[in-house]
UniProtKB/TrEMBL annotation:
InterPro entries (UniProt xref): Endo/Exo/Phosphatase_dom_1, RuvA_2-like
PANTHER family named in the record: ENDONUCLEASE/EXONUCLEASE/PHOSPHATASE FAMILY DOMAIN-CONTAINING PROTEIN 1 (PTHR21180), ENDONUCLEASE_EXONUCLEASE_PHOSPHATASE FAMILY DOMAIN-CONTAINING PROTEIN 1 (PTHR21180:SF32)
One Pfam family recorded for the sequence: HHH_3
Organism from which the protein derives: Hoylesella timonensis S9-PR14
Name of the protein this chain belongs to: Competence protein ComEA
GO biological process: protein secretion by the type II secretion system
GO CC terms in record: type II protein secretion system complex
Signal sequence coordinates: none
Length: 306
């Protein structure tokens, strides 16, 4: 194509040709600049050429040269690390290959956990030499160690037996615990009461507003009846029971009590709306939801104050 033919193209075609021409010239210039032997050390390995280019490029603009980890020829650092939490930078500094680091990340992403040093030896592609070098520096965090090792460590340090460690010290048959004031740690000292029932006792105690009888504990599902004799309720405890002011509380507040629920709460609110304040149990005893048994259970909790 002659130079004159160039002007036979329309305006958009001429712009496209000029752009391609300039692009080719620019690529040629860059090739000669970066292929200059002066810019790259003759001893630089071939696989490090890209990093050398990048360093030279940064230096030309007067910026601080970047630090790169080279696959080979880099300085290896040895320091304590947890393969469950170490990031890629730390793993590379330890001498692992980038593809080995990726395998570690894939293993952790799939839910894998290194629970002991020997687990790290199963890393795909890890050589025996690498493992022997890194093994003294592998430190598995306590959150990832098997529970059996933690128990064994406590037994070895404190000198307690397995049964003593598994079950807290229980009180004697002659001892009693106040069910209305005891916390979970104290409740677990009662024979037959573990963490689950200790939490259930406190949760039910909060919902009720306090216990007035140890028999109420049997209302907790599957509660061990043999544990009842270890609990006591004093007169002071019953005086501290939280009262329900049924003439003031809303239906939402009333229904939260285990002995009331939604339907009895609605009956109380409807009675107040139709007939005014409630002054005695006889006012509600005619309603089908308030049987003598229900009234007896609710009596310690209810106040008719307005």
């Amino acid at each position: 194509m002659s130079f004159k033919d160039f002007f036979y193209f329309n305006k958009s075609d001429r712009k496209a040709l000029l752009f391609l021409l300039l692009l080719g010239v620019g690529a040629t210039i860059l090739f000669y600049v970066f292929s200059d032997p002066k810019n790259i050390d003759a001893n630089t390995p071939i696989h490090d050429t890209v990093f050398a280019y990048r360093d030279v490029h940064v230096d030309r603009y007067g910026q601080q040269p970047a630090v790169y980890y080279r696959v080979e020829g880099r300085q290896i650092e040895l320091f304590p690390f947890d393969p469950n939490t170490a990031d890629s930078t730390a793993l590379l500094r330890l001498g692992l290959q980038p593809w080995q680091v990726r395998n570690i990340y894939k293993y952790r992403a799939a839910g894998g956990v290194y629970r002991q040093r020997s687990d790290f030896a199963r890393l795909y592609g890890l050589t025996q030499k690498q493992y022997r070098t890194l093994e003294p520096y592998i430190h598995i965090g306590s959150d990832y160690q098997p529970a059996a090792e933690a128990v064994a460590s406590v037994n070895k340090t404190v000198g307690y037996g397995r049964d003593t460690l598994r079950f807290p010290v229980k009180i004697k048959s002659s001892e009693h615990i106040s069910v209305n004031t005891a916390d979970t740690n104290l409740l677990k000292k009662v024979p037959g009461i573990g963490s689950y029932y200790a939490r259930q006792i406190i949760r039910y105690r909060t919902r009720l507003g306090g216990f007035y009888s140890t028999q109420q504990l049997l209302e907790i599902e599957d509660f061990p009846e043999e544990s009842l004799p270890y609990f006591r309720i004093s007169k002071h405890d019953t005086e501290q029971i939280q009262r329900l002011f049924i003439n003031r509380l809303s239906i939402h507040q009333l229904k939260r009590h285990p002995y009331i629920g939604y339907y009895r709460a609605r009956a109380i609110v409807d009675y107040r709306r139709l007939k005014g304040p409630i002054h005695r149990w006889e006012d509600l005893s005619m309603l089908p939801d308030f049987t003598p048994d229900v009234i007896a259970r609710l009596s310690p909790y209810v106040s008719f104050s307005e």
